[in-house]
Write a structure and sequence with these properties.
179 residues, mainly alpha, 3-stranded antiparallel beta sheet, Arc Repressor Mutant, subunit A, 2 domains
């Protein structure tokens, strides 16, 4: 099951939802911070999940003169698949992406000054990301975010803070070695 499929099934498991409502929740909960869920792929994946029997859709009349809209509900097979995927992912830590690690492995191609510059930019970007996620978390918690969604923000904040701490320590180490 892909990350996008898991995310969409998880949102549909909370309650039946329209595609547009799912998109709004993805944005409100900051899910794009940690999952690659493209706006254009949401309806494609919803239709794919419907075709595979994990979701069922019902067309309901739109408000006023608007066209009918589909509301998506999790099927029993969808709930079973979602539960299995959640259990598997919670119990087995996934490897992180290799991008940053690959760059670290090739550091000898950069001068110390270039490395420090890149890492300082990284640190600034992490600090901005930390601020953005923290601000969104507190705003959404005040709006009655469900506890499991708040846990996503808490974990994201902890991971960003850990990365920021590591980058800052590495910058200090490089600055010390440089002298």
């Amino acid at each position: 099951m892909t990350n996008t499929e898991l995310a969409l099934l998880g949102l549909a498991a909370e309650q039946p939802r329209y595609g547009y409502e799912i998109e709004q929740l993805i944005e409100q909960r900051g899910m794009r911070e940690w999952a690659e869920i493209g706006l254009s792929s949401i309806y494609y994946v919803l239709n794919k999940l419907e075709e595979s029997g994990l979701l069922e859709a019902e067309k309901l009349p739109g408000p006023g003169e608007r066209p009918a809209r589909k509301i998506y509900r999790l099927t029993p097979a969808g709930m079973e698949a979602l539960r299995a995927a959640v259990k598997e992912r919670l119990s087995k830590p996934r490897p992180r992406t290799a991008d940053f690690d690959l760059a670290l492995s090739a550091l000898p191609v950069l001068s110390t000054a270039e490395t420090l510059h890149a890492l300082r930019v990284c640190r600034a970007n992490l600090a901005l990301r930390l601020k953005r996620v923290a601000t969104k978390q507190f705003a959404d918690q005040d709006a009655g975010m469900p506890p499991h969604a708040a846990a996503l923000f808490d974990r994201s904040l902890a991971l960003i803070q850990a990365e920021l701490t590591w980058v800052s320590a590495y910058i200090t180490r490089l600055e010390t070695q440089k002298e």
